[in-house]
Amino acid sequence: MELTLNVRRRGGGALEPGLQAYQIEVTPETSVFDALVKAREEQDGSLAFRGNCSVGFCGDCTLMVNGKQVVSCLVTVGKVQKDNEIRIEPIKYATVTKDVMHDVNQFLWDKANSLSAGIVSNSTAAATEEELRPVRTAMRCTMCGLCDDGCTVIDVNTEFKGPAALTRIFRYVFDPRDTRHVERAVEVGEINGIWDCVHCWEASEHCPVGIDPTHRIMELRDRSVRLGVKSGRGNRSAARHYDAFERSVEKSGWLDERALAIQSSGGLIRGGLKMLPTGLKALRRGKATLMPHPKRPGAAQIAKLFERYRQVTGTRH
Amino acid sequence: MDRFAFYPGCVAKGSCPELYESVTLVMGLMGMGIEELEDVGCTGAGVLSAEVSDPINARTLAKAERLGLPVMTICSTCQGIIGAAALRLQDPEYRSYINREFLAEEGLEYQGTTEVKHFLWVLVEDFGIDQVRGMVQRPLEGISISPFYGCYLRRPADVIERPERKKYIETVTEALGATNVDISGKGKCCGFPTLMINEPNSLAMTAKHTGEAQDKGADAMVVPCPLCHLELDGEQEQAASAANRTIEMPILHLPQMVGLAFGVSPKELGLGRHFVTTSKVIAKLELAEAATAT
Description:
The complex is a heterodimer. Chain A is of the alpha+beta class. Chain A has helices spanning 32-42, 77-80, 104-113, 129-138, 146-149, 162-173, 181-188, 202-206, 213-226, 236-252, 257-264, 268-284, 299-313, and strands at 2-9, 18-25, 62-65, 68-71, 85-89, 96-98, 101-102. Chain A is globular. Chain A is built from 13 helices and seven strands. In chain A, the strands form two sheets. In chain A, strands 2-1-5-3-4 form a five-stranded mixed sheet, covered by helices on one side. Chain A has a two-stranded antiparallel sheet with strand order 6-7. The longest helix of chain B has 18 residues, at 50-67. The model of chain B has no long low-confidence stretch (mean pLDDT 96).
């Protein structure tokens, strides 16, 4: 089939930014990545894009194809072409170095490498297959970065570590051989870590290999709580928020929004002052009350569930 | 199904009373029965560890199961969290663990049969979109609505179950006579989950969504989640200020929008309770209504 690749070009000296069309002859089964290689080899040696293994193993050739982020060697032109045309652009949140080539260190690896990796073990004892099952899922990650490029938080703050880097740490926190679970929970609990995730599930929807990174981040949070670590040392607001939320539900069965807002914002004086304007506005509009927060009818039973949960899981209170 | 075990969640019973009032009113108009679950707990909202929220939610599901009714939620976050718990509790081994370790003490046992549905899904699937259309007394013609789903009514796929549910708000707005205004972030996070943890991130999200809706000419946004409402309405002024721009975008709860089209007065629907005034959209609607009447 005859295919037109409309490739976003920028950088490289005199080149005008914009879409450049390449007409190439391919089969419908040709991958988008191989189509780009063909355009470069046959027509334009200056065309820049990332790529390496071409079989979905290295995760390097991530691109925006017809407005959707993909690992370009895993997608065939036959599936994505519209009227025999394909638009190819760089991914959203990475710095573009030239054309559709992005800076993968700035986008992924600098963040991933800022968190301690590698198992630290005191023993030569092997883990069982059953123990390693959750870790094996996370190990399928190729660091293609699609999860980061779909991330709601990175959309507003590129300093957020992102699902790829955090899922990488999941592997160590859930590995029974590792001896640094608490330290890792503290490290990923700092600002721009797991507690900044808004659990929107975009990462899971974007992951091409089914790792479900959002779920892995939520499990990292749950495990951190079990370890008694509800934030990093420089991120106390996350711990305050968790504790205030837990206290409220355990005590009354449901959320005391007023107490939650004040306690999460730093306690009665700091939090109270911060929340005062919003609180007064809410009072005027009938959205808040000065009455004490009532308990739900099932509150005593809910409190027992918390008690039981700590016994069963060994969670530190 | 025309009867549900109603799980209002914390916020509709707290700082968004207008949501509770408008949904009970609209369900009544539609002749749909609701039996409120009183002695159940907060879902955990994705804040609490699933190791404790799953038992709490299993208890809620077991109580609805005893009533023989599906659960109806009015909060996307509640829906997402109980929905995900219900899915995990389909695993017989996990369910047996939760029953044994947590629910048995109270004499409860969850069998795994309770369906959990958001009001939006009930509206389209149980009441029916043609019936919704048939109840319109005051068409929302000339009103541009920007649907905002937030996270939990569009993802994850296994909890949402049916992909067509990702377009239900548009289906409803069209049935009510309104024009949809599509924004790029309609399925993204509103910012609420991180409001108390990383406020700049949270406000940036709010400014982005409400600002885009305004730039595209929406008269109002509609949300199926009170947490989105607390954020997009309650934090809009601060978000606009942080983004150094002017935004005034009214945010309607889904049942408020339905109620307006069904002819209910704005006052009964609690539209005066919002932080961002809804007066312009109400005036536009009343103007259109007067024009139709003459």
